[in-house]
Structure prediction request, 68 residues.
Amino acid sequence: MYNLYGVVNHSGNVNFGHYTAYCKNWKTDKWYNFNDSSVSEISESEVVSNSAYLLFYERKDADVYHVY
Prediction:
């Protein structure tokens, strides 16, 4: 079993596009949208999208070392 904690999104095409990221704050359990210099809280239902490009998971039973 795995927990999703980050998603990189890509919109556009091969020659031109834009990247954004969704990341989960492990302390608050809230999701955030990182878009250039803007950061905003989003609902968990918004994390699933057709723009997902890379997904980041952690194994549930793994020892987790967080960077502060």
